[in-house]
Design brief:
alpha/beta; two-stranded antiparallel sheet; 12 helices; 10 strands
């Protein structure tokens, strides 16, 4: 595990344990289980039949360790609504509270505003976070292969499935693919180097073709131009997860259209 991930795991686990007093785990479990049948399918929303357009997971986040504060005036629900209006197929909500300045409450706010599938984007190191995801309206949960041991990621993926949530298994290196392929859910390939936090342009393009076509394949991090998007499509990705390059625009709808074109007219979910 990289130093960055080790630090994140330690910090995240400490915060989860500290916050546990605010909501008993049994109550979280009950709330998550009560929503088991309410989840639109994250993988099916992103599956791209041959010849169709690349699907888009648009991300809401206020800050990141590599970029600092990205959006000082941050309203995740309004951003999510704008993404859906522009044509996003799903929304990723960054909930890590320290370095990304997120919150689990942001997930609830977004859920109340849009109906497309939602991904809880966080550093999941405890089962409590999976229950929080389900209780607050997520439809999918990010699980990072490099962050968890084999038993943990297997157990958390199984818990997601039991709650009706879709695991998104994220890999950063080729050696992690075998682990990801042995787990249920979509597979994301992240271009970011977890040691330096630098984005490696084109890294995902070398791994995506190794993922079987029956799995939903998502390219993550560092996409800034239509040429980037075209290369991802050619590599066989079903979808791209994109945040910072959209959030740098005052009007994220304009940024979305610049990268992906105008909405197709498809009903992408309620926006209020």
């Amino acid at each position: 595990m990289s130093d960055f991930l080790s630090t994140m795991a330690r910090e995240r686990l400490a915060r989860v344990r500290r916050d546990a007093a605010a909501m008993p785990l049994d109550r979280l479990r009950e709330e998550a289980e009560a929503r088991r049948g309410d989840h639109p399918s994250f993988p099916e929303a992103l599956r791209r039949p041959g010849g169709e357009r690349l699907r888009v997971v648009a991300e809401t986040k206020r800050a990141s360790p590599s970029a600092g504060v990205i959006r000082a005036a941050y309203d995740p629900a309004t951003l999510a609504a704008a993404y859906v209006e522009a044509g996003a197929d799903a929304v990723s909500v960054l909930t890590e509270p320290e370095r990304f300045q997120g919150s689990i409450e942001h997930l609830s706010l977004v859920r109340a505003r849009v109906e497309v599938p939602l991904l809880l984007k966080d550093f999941v190191v405890h089962e409590r976070q999976v229950y929080e995801a389900g209780a607050n309206g997520a439809d999918a949960v990010l699980l990072i292969v490099a962050l968890l041991d084999a038993g943990q990621i297997r157990d958390y993926a199984a818990l997601c499935v039991d709650l009706g949530l879709a695991p998104l298994i994220e890999v950063h290196e080729e050696r992690e693919l075998d682990t990801a392929l042995g787990l249920p859910g979509a597979i994301g390939v992240n271009n970011r180097d977890l040691k330096s936090l630098r984005v490696r342009p084109g890294h995902a393009l070398t791994l995506l073709p190794r993922i079987p076509a029956d799995r939903v394949r998502i390219a993550e991090s560092g996409y800034r131009s239509r040429e980037d998007i075209a290369r991802v499509e050619e590599a066989g990705a079903d979808a791209v997860l994109i945040g910072e390059s959209l959030l740098r625009h005052d009007d994220v709808r304009a940024g979305f259209t610049q990268l992906f074109g105008a909405p197709s007219g498809k009903d992408h979910g309620r926006v209020e």
